[in-house]
Design brief:
Layout (H helix, E strand, L loop, with lengths): L6 H10 L3 H33 L6 H10 L5 H17 L3 H10 L5 H17 L13 H7 L18 H5 L2 H12 L6 E9 L2 E8 L2 E7 L12 E4 L10 E2 L2 E4 L4 E9 L4 E6 L7 E6 L3 H5 L15 H5 L3 E3 L2 E3 L12 H12 L7 E3 L6 H13 L15 E2 L20 E3 L1
Parallel strand pairs: 11-13, 12-14
Antiparallel strand pairs: 1-2, 1-4, 2-3, 4-5, 6-7, 7-8, 8-9, 10-11
Helix pairs in contact: 1-2, 2-4, 2-9, 3-4, 4-5, 7-9
Length: 419
């Protein structure tokens, strides 16, 4: 697979970075662009196959799009790619099967040694000094761990020596090489029909950063829309089979703009191009909804009046040690903070303290800290191990992204714990 969309430009940013801060930020952008690329590729293929076969789109995919992809993040793009890839594999789709085969390959011995050093250093930066890398490491595992590094872009450090051990391991070259290896066996191109003529269709084809105009015979069962863009996965597949609105290729400028976010109040979708040469550019395109941008078919969850199931909205409801709860599972790479965990338990044990907030920058582990403390209460072997005030019968986990109590007033409390 030739590096496509914004990946070549993101690599250029990494290679031209001067300071440590710029290098880490550029590497974060590159890995985020990688997961965005994977998300768009697998979603476009999965969506069009479902429409062709009159199969319903996975409800979890629809909920993910509506809840998180108006303003996508590294995690939401990664989740979209995984969900769509899993569904495609169940269908026996060759792209998903081939990609999975490459992603689960173990690194060669020399690569594995360097990968383990990089993973240990990333966890050291996150204060997880007891971390031990797995004995066998795959391509996908290494790239996924980059999500732990991505939030360092929020720090205002230019040449902080903290990064030196990581950069001396050539993490930038290593990650770029892994992505290139992961995408090496599949050739994908983007096409934009320019005109329909009697003897065929003129199209602009973009493969990586290389563009060419060609005429193809008009023998298609799929009538091309001149306003749409299409992704071609294999030469033996119909060129106009997989249409998408997540890309906007401008043949006059030879630039392919990629969906960035949706501004609902303005009905604007923002698209972005990261060129190899020149500055990052953005354009706005009018859309009525996030459904329209992602091409969700009518008759989906929203139209059926089934926005979300209870499990999709609140998570799986479980019973552990006679406690009913919907707490998400902990991450395997949770970084323990004994002092803060103890302080949070003390706050929760306070009889007159009804609201406790955790304060910290993005990616510092506030959510995982809360999950860990609550799970420690749930998994306690005996009730004697915890104070009576913390012996709950029910624990409810909700997201701050939704309004659950619209009739209530605001609660202001100055109690917080810095993470």
């Amino acid at each position: 697979m030739t590096l496509i969309f914004n990946l070549p430009g993101a690599i250029q940013e990494v290679q031209t970075s001067r300071t440590n801060k710029e290098k880490i930020e550029a590497l974060n952008r590159f890995t985020e662009e990688f997961y965005k690329t994977i998300g768009i590729l697998f979603y476009t293929r999965y969506l069009n196959i479902c429409i062709e076969s009159n199969e319903p789109l996975d409800e979890n995919v629809q909920v993910l799009i509506r809840d998180y992809l108006a303003t996508p993040t590294f995690d939401s793009w990664m989740r979209l790619g995984k969900l769509c890839s899993e569904n495609l594999r169940l269908m026996g789709d060759r792209l998903a099967l081939e990609f999975n085969e490459i992603s689960v390959q173990e690194l060669e011995s020399s690569e594995a040694v360097n990968a383990k050093k990089i993973l240990k250093e990333i966890h050291r930066l996150r204060s997880s000094h007891n971390y031990r890398p797995p004995r066998k490491i795959t391509l996908a595992q290494v790239i996924e761990v980059m999500r732990l590094l991505r939030n360092f872009r929020t720090h205002e450090w230019d040449n902080n020596s903290t990064y030196e051990p990581l950069l001396k391991l050539n993490i930038d070259e290593f990650i770029i090489n892994l992505v290139e290896k992961l995408m090496s066996n599949i050739k994908i191109s983007t096409i934009k029909p320019i005109s329909i003529q009697e003897d065929g269709i003129e199209i602009a084809e973009l493969c990586g950063i290389n563009r060419k105009n060609i005429n193809i015979p008009y023998t298609s069962n799929f009538s091309p829309d001149l306003s749409r863009n299409y992704i071609v996965y294999y030469e033996d597949e119909e060129k106009f089979r997989f249409k998408t609105t997540l890309l906007r290729y401008h043949e006059n400028y030879n630039k392919c703009y990629i969906f960035l976010k949706y501004l609902e109040r303005r009905d604007d979708a923002i698209y972005e191009v990261v060129p190899v040469i020149g500055e990052i550019e953005k354009i706005g395109v009018k859309f009525n909804s996030i459904d329209e941008i992602f091409g969700l078919p009518k008759g989906s969850l929203k139209d059926a009046g089934l926005e979300q199931t209870l499990e999709q909205k609140f998570g799986k409801i479980c019973i552990n040690n006679e406690i009913i709860h919907n707490i998400p599972e902990e991450l395997e790479d949770y970084i323990k903070r004994g002092g803060v965990e103890k302080k949070l338990l003390e706050k929760l044990n306070h009889l007159r303290l009804y609201l406790t907030t955790l304060d910290g920058g993005g990616g510092f582990g506030k959510t995982e800290l809360a999950k860990h403390v609550v799970w420690s209460l749930i998994n306690s072997e005996t009730k004697q191990d915890i104070p009576k005030s913390l012996q709950f019968k029910y624990v409810v986990w909700v997201t701050g992204k939704e309004e659950y109590f619209p009739m209530g007033g605001n609660i202001v409390n100055n109690e917080f714990i810095k993470v």
